[in-house]
Amino acid sequence: MARNLQSKQPLIPNADQVSVSAIRLLKFERDIRQLESTDALKLHLVNQVRELVPYEQAFLFQRKQSAQKLQLTLISDIATLERDSPFNQTLEQAVQALDASKYLVDTYRSFPLNTDKNLTDTKKNNSPYLINDYPHQAVCWVPLFNQTGLADAGILLARDQAFSDQETTLLARIIETYEHAWFALTGNKTATIGGRNTRLISISLIILIVAAGLFPVRLSVMAPMQVIPQDPYVLTAPIDGVIKSIAVAPNANINANTPLVTFEDLKLRNESTLAEQELAVAQARLSRVNSSIFSDADVAYELPIARAELNLAEVRYRYTQELLSQTQVTSPVAGLVTYTDRKDWEGRAVQVGEQILQVANPLRVQFGIDLPTGDLIELETGADISIYLDSAPLGGYEASLKSISHTPAATESNITSYRIIAEPSSLSGEQNGLYVVTDIPRIGARGTARLYGKQVTLAYQLLRRPIAVVRQYLGV
Question: What residue intervals traverse the membrane (predicted)?
C-alpha cells in the first residue's frame, strides 16, 4: 500500500493549481449570482455545471404545484422538453420510483445506472427504449434543498465514468450557491424550487376565501340621503297670482305670525274697489225702492230684485276682500324657513295649492332616502339604517325605517327610486314638550344611508349586484 502511494504523483497540488481552481470556483459562483431570472438559473444549472464537474447530460426534476411527484422539467442542451418521449417518460417514472422508496431523499447518490433494479425494471407502455440502452450509465443524483431543509428538486447528472467523492463534494458546494440564488430571485423566504409550499399556500388561500365567503353578514345597500323636517308647516299658494316678494331669507328662523309671502294685489284691489261701488249702488237702489213703495204700488215688484242684487253685491265684495287679505301670508308657527331661493319665486305665477316653502322645527328632523329600484332589498318597518353625512364623514347617526313608498318614482337626478323615510334613533328624546339634543343634523344636509336587511353570506353580498347585471344582460 505504501509502495503504491510512493509510486503515484503527490496528492497535494501546488499553490498555482489551488489558486487557479479557487479563481474558477469564485468566478462560477459570481456568474450564478448575476443571473436575473429563475429560468436563466435553471438553464445555467443543467448546462454550465460541467465546467467544474464534467458530465454528458443533465436532467432537472421538480415537484410541481399540481403533484407531489418529481417531474422532469429540463434537459441539458435541449431547448424544448418532449414529454411524450419514451425515454423521458421511463426516466421520470424511474426517478419517481426511487423517490417513493426514499432512495433519493436528501442524499447525494452516485451509482451505476444499469445495475439499479428500480431503474432497469421501470417501463411505460412496453417501451422498447430501456434505460439499459442509455449510453451514459454512471449517474449522480444531486438534491436541491428548500429553506425548510427538504429536497423539493434535484438534478441527475449522467456520464461514462463514476463520480468521485471529491466531485460530489464540489457539487454540494455549487448547489448551495444555486439554492441561495434561487431564493434571492424569488424574494420569498418560504418559496421552494419545486413549488410545494406554493401549492400549499394556494390551497390555503382557496380554503380561506371559501370560508370567508360563507361568513354571515347582514345584507346592506347604500343610497343617497337628505335630512328633511319632521311634520313641517307647508305654505302653499292660497290664490292664483304672482308672487311679489318673500319677506324672509332661506334658512331664517322666524316667530309665529311673521309675514312670509306677498302677492301682487293690483288687480284684486281694483276688483275690491269695483265690488265696493257695486255694493253701494245696490244699497242705494234698495233704499229708493223702499221709499217709493208707499207712493207707487207698481214699484213693489222691484223690491225682491233690489234685495237680491244687494245680497249678490255683498257676497262679491266679501269675496274680493277675502282674496285681498290673502295677498299677505304669515306663518302660524315658529321655526326654520326652508325653500330654494328668492329669485326662484319672486315674479313667478303660481296656482292655488302649489307649495312655496316650509316652516320646520329644526329640532325635529328625519331622513329622506331615495333607494334605486336596482338596489331594492327586503326591508321591514323598523329596519336598522346608518346615516353618514357628507359634511361629517367620520361620524354618523343611527335610524330606523319608518315608511317606504309602494311604487317608485323618478327623482331630481332622473333615477327611478323608492322613497324611504327614516326616523333618527340616536338623538336625545323629548322632555316637557321640547327636544333636548346637542348634535342634530342640519335640515337640507345630504349624505349616504346604509340600509340593513336579513342575514346572508359574504359571497352573496359581494356577488349580488354582478349576478343581477349578468342576468339582465343575458335576459335570464
Answer: 200-219
